[in-house]
Amino acid sequence: MAPLGIIAGLGDLPLAIADNAVASGQGVYVLRVKGFEEPALSKFPGDIIGLGEVGGVLKRLKAAGCKDVVFAGIVNRPNFSDLKLDMKGMALLPKVLSAARQGDDALLRVLVNEFEKQGFNVLGSHEVNGQLLAPAGLIAGNNPSPDDMADIEHAARVVAATGALDIGQGAVVCDGLVLAVEAQEGTDAMLDRCAGLPVTIRGTDTKRRGVLVKRPKPGQELRIDLPTTGVSTVEKVAAAGLAGLAIEAEGALLLNKSAMQEAAERLGVFIYGFPPELGL
Amino acid sequence: MAPLGIIAGLGDLPLAIADNAVASGQGVYVLRVKGFEEPALSKFPGDIIGLGEVGGVLKRLKAAGCKDVVFAGIVNRPNFSDLKLDMKGMALLPKVLSAARQGDDALLRVLVNEFEKQGFNVLGSHEVNGQLLAPAGLIAGNNPSPDDMADIEHAARVVAATGALDIGQGAVVCDGLVLAVEAQEGTDAMLDRCAGLPVTIRGTDTKRRGVLVKRPKPGQELRIDLPTTGVSTVEKVAAAGLAGLAIEAEGALLLNKSAMQEAAERLGVFIYGFPPELGL
């Protein structure tokens, strides 16, 4: 069986995918992106390669016999003028630069298209490991109250709007007030700043209110960059005094679901999968 | 001449308005909101009063002979269940609570309507002191480059969208990428976090790129809560490596314009007033 090719950035997601592929017997070949090398991935067969070496990536994946390829983990946007480009990278650069001005999603589509043109089958993390995908309904904790449901719906509407502008995939709403919108700082930094807002407009650990909502951008390339949550997300949701975390069912990844459920129950927050049509 | 009534929160704006009203010969009566008492305002005739004492505010303004009233300065949303309410405050509370769920703008409209019903003439800061309003075109520094203009237009579009959802009045865009969107944390905190983003996606003081855009929410109550910028905004724009600050012409306040211009020239950033129809 052809090993799964993983083009990997930082975080637990590429590790979960690699472990799963090894356990299933498929095996893996992991290309870690230079500057974003996740140490836990060094135990797998693979290599480290620069972001600009597109030709090198393709050649190595072919040499390793890969057919299926998945992009997983966090890689920040490079400074394009500092990239060390190989021939293929140079050929692709004009397309990449013009896509980059249209946002992250356009940029990622250029990469996916190029890999497909080269005969690879580009899969999403959720297609490689179905366990990761968030289900619908209550996942942990108590059912959201009517106030929580109103906040979930409003935040879902907000993220649909900011997502349509390719701004980000998350927002925090408390009693109808939008406390924070996620852009390039990421979810963890957004939750940290919510924890620093005046307690008059947010919840506390004795009186929880408000929700974090994560959902994909409308029409986004689901094979790359699906919103990802994990135990640390649950912990930061709790630290910000929120009542819970709501993600779009089948539109977000739960990394280590059972550990997330355990953390949510322990901290007294809910995890809830809302229907994909909410707030659209 | 009836003195100008100022219901004042924190910051330099109420001070600028009070100084102006005294200099013009109108005189002032300043009600400082408890918990948000700007020390520099203690030299003016007035009083300190709680947010829930709506009846008390109206009575004092009448006793001081005020006809024109202006709301100025920063007051965070209170915890409504902690408010000390007088009779008038209690009568207004249901309306306030239901408006609060619809956002800041709806909440402020309830207050304006009540003051008008009581016979006061509620004015915006820009109507009381025309010097504060941002003009159109270049205000300081070098003309924005074509890349800067593209970022200004994209950020103007983003803030129109987030404003329509009553999220906030500001965003930062660099090379087409939305670095940050302002919600309850305020402009200064948003700029501080931009300064902490990877230098690959933002400018630096040797190679400035990206812009902060501030504009009112579409259709917002302009007499309260017009976006306000000052010298510290210019300094934080520079510290975040941005090329400049763009505000909607006639839709934002410049506090101490000449000091802002001086800071912008010194730090090498522009201040630019874009046309109100941009990005709509």
UniProtKB/TrEMBL annotation, chains A, B:
Gene3D superfamilies: 3.40.140.80, 3.40.50.20. Residues 135-272 form the LpxI C-terminal domain. Residues 4-129 form the LpxI N-terminal domain. Pfam families: LpxI_C (PF06230), LpxI_N (PF17930). It comes from the Bacteria. This is UDP-2,3-diacylglucosamine pyrophosphatase. It comes from Hyphomonas beringensis. The lineage of its organism: Bacteria, Pseudomonadati, Pseudomonadota, Alphaproteobacteria, Hyphomonadales.
